[in-house]
Input
Amino acid sequence: MTVTLQTLDARPQAQLPQGPFHQWTFPNGTEWTLFYRLSSSYLLRFPDLADFEVSRDGRKATAWPVPGVSPGTVEHLHLNQVLPLALSRQGRLVLHASAVVIDGKGVAFTGESGRGKSTLAASFATTGARFLTDDGLQLDWLDGQCRITPSHPSVRLWEDSQEALIPQAVDLVPAVEYTTKARLLAGDAMAFCDQLQPLRRVYFLGEGVAPSLVIEAVRPAEALMELVRNSFLLDIEEKQLLAWHFDEMVRLAELPIYYRLDYPRRYEDLPRVREAIIRHAIEEESKVT
Output
């Protein structure tokens, strides 16, 4: 399953007759995404950037950038915001999470924006491991096992993380209007995995205030709350979709794979953090098996 994107000519964002049924805002109150229902589709509005119309089945998206907004910005918005939401209309589970491959299985990192998901993915991908996704973690059940579907082969990083982690050989996508984050493309210097991988571990990232690295098991009820909080869902008011989504979240939360991870946010500590994660993921699994 995929989402077909068509980008049309730029147009101003006209006022809509009805108000949004949902919206995302930044902590300072600035509107980021407005969700509207149309007669046979949805409209996702990113103020002063672009409008995206998404079909009810989530298989098609049409973009109208605001005049002056670059094609790269439209692509960024589609990959990072619209695509995960559209996939939820197709019955796909998508989390705000990054993921890497450790010992042949997927290890995911999820949590609020700014907690280091992308930094961890890039740190692993530039030191011998491969990453599966920077954000928009797609999960599917195959033969009774939860598997990760790889997403776009790129990672978005703030400038300080880019300078600390990324070699000069990594290709950059041109900058966009709405963020100073750089998008870095996978390649020889930043390895990407394009194959389905079984989900081995999910680490919920803390605030970075722990004086030393902490890994603690998370109970299913707490894992469920975190999964719901960090999942994509386009229509939060459609009862049938909500019921399906909740059932899938419960099924996912029952897996014995969840841990809370916190550590001081210092780049010089990342080698030790990676080693601890690798050791924990492999050793904990061996105890179970």
Remarks:
- The first helix runs from residue 71 to 89.
